[in-house]
From TrEMBL:
Keywords assigned: DNA-binding, Phosphoprotein, Two-component regulatory system
Organism of this sequence: Actinokineospora globicatena
PANTHER family for the chain: PHOSPHATE REGULON TRANSCRIPTIONAL REGULATORY PROTEIN PHOB, REGULATOR OF RPOS
SUPFAM superfamilies found in the cross-reference section: CheY-like
Domain of life per record: Bacteria
Pfam families listed in its UniProt record: Response_reg (PF00072)
Protein's recorded name: Response regulatory domain-containing protein
Domain Response regulatory intervals: 3-117
Gene Ontology biological process terms in this record: regulation of DNA-templated transcription
InterPro entries per the UniProt record, alphabetical: CheY-like_superfamily, Sig_transdc_resp-reg_receiver, WalR-like
Modified residues (4-aspartylphosphate): D50
UniProt KW Transit peptide keyword: no
Record flagged with keyword Phosphoprotein: yes
Length: 126
């Protein structure tokens, strides 16, 4: 079973993400900070990171994951309300595999994660 680390500080949204991903057949570890996400790094097959976390940004977490041999190729999806082109560019330059805007369709989110985990190429819409 593929393991996803979800880092989201909003408990209601985090619960929704966990519910939808478990429903889709994934094992999920849910955390609320960037540090906790990094602590779970070695066992994850994908990271779903809120850009705005309380201790560090999702961009910083992504950059750190990319700098480590064990996680440099692990897909990272950024989830954010920041929709400006510069924000998306910052996400891409941090090494993110995909960038999903809030509000989002849970089905689209699961489809995009599935595409990344199955090696089906770029997620839909890219």
């Amino acid at each position: 079973m593929k393991r996803i680390v979800v880092a989201e500080d909003d408990p209601d949204l985090r619960d929704l993400l966990v519910f939808k991903l478990v429903q889709a057949g994934y094992e999920v570890t849910a955390v609320s900070t960037g540090r906790e996400a990094l602590d779970e790094a070695e066992a994850a097959q994908l990271f779903l990171l809120d850009v705005t976390l309380p201790d560090m940004t999702g961009l910083q977490v992504c950059s750190q994951l990319r700098s480590e041999d064990a996680t440099k190729d692990t897909p990272v999806v950024l989830l954010t309300g920041h929709t400006q082109e510069a924000d998306v560019a910052a996400g891409r330059s941090s090494g993110a595999s995909d960038y999903i805007f809030k509000p989002f369709s849970p089905r689209d989110l699961v489809d995009r994660i599935s595409a990344l985990l199955t090696g089906g190429g770029d997620p839909p819409g890219r």
